[in-house]
Amino acid sequence: MGHTWISDAVRRMSKMSSAELADLVTKHPWILTYDNVLNSGTAATVYFNPKGKPLPPSANAELKARRAGNLNNPMTGAELWKLMGDSEKQLRPFNIHTLLDFLLNSAEFDLEKYPFADHQLLMPLERLNGLPTGKDAKWIQRLLGSQLITEWLKQLRLMDSAITKDIGLNRVLFFLGVQLTVSRIRGLFHRRAGDDNSFDRLDYLVPVFGWLHFTMTVANSLHE
């Protein structure tokens, strides 16, 4: 097996993969994940949802209007405190169940001999906005190269002038990552706020904090 043969095979596979990516982008809703954007981090990954429904074009304008409104009328400390209280009411049963599950499944406790093992408090809770599971809920996953937003869009074949205009005016794209990723994307928002159009200003982009490092910190605190 010669080097030329291997290089040609890899090149053909790369072209086929690029064509598949471009096709998937036009057919299914998708999100992109990355750890530590603009810095050394993990590979960018795109997830396509074959069963998902795309957001309507009006979502882009609604996102811009909500951001503009929040800039002029930011959330107060009292409003934030109320949201935390409302969330705590929903999460409290799950927190209690997590503690009970940890205790009841410990080596020192024999749940099978516990006389109240069928008590309502020990029953599994109904999920809050739970994600669907099973083979019909399976997403398609593909890896990208580089560490730049424009390069990712090029690999997805979304950098044509007509497409970038449509993205800036009618689409909403979600990028998921750790807090550093989100922080740097928000920094790009500030730096590019004066650019000429919605695409250059990244008005279409929604960064989502994925809690990865927070979860790792909690795990370390428990096991170290």
Brief write-up:
This protein is of the alpha/beta class. Helices cover 49% and strands 10% of the residues. It starts with a helix and ends with a helix.
Secondary structure tally: strands = 5
Order of helices and strands: HEEHHEHHEHEH
Output mean pLDDT. 86
Distance between the termini: 49 Å
As a percent range, the share of helical residues equals 40-55%
Describe the protein in words:
The chain has 224 residues and is of the alpha/beta class. It has two domains: 16-51 and 141-224, no CATH class; 75-131, no CATH class. Helices cover 49% and strands 10% of the residues. It is built from seven helices and five strands, in the order H-E-E-H-H-E-H-H-E-H-E-H. Strands 3-2-1-4-5 form a five-stranded mixed beta sheet, covered by helices on one side. It is globular, with a radius of gyration of 23 Å. The model has no long low-confidence stretch (mean pLDDT 86).
Kindly list the characteristics that best describe this protein.
224 residues, alpha/beta, 2 domains, 5-stranded mixed β-sheet, 5 strands, globular, DUF6589, DUF6589 domain-containing protein
Outline the fold blueprint.
Elements: H1 3-27, E1 30-33, E2 45-48, H2 58-72, H3 77-104, E3 140-143, H4 149-155, H5 161-170, E4 173-177, H6 179-191, E5 205-209, H7 212-223
Parallel strand pairs: 1-4, 4-5
Antiparallel strand pairs: 1-2, 2-3
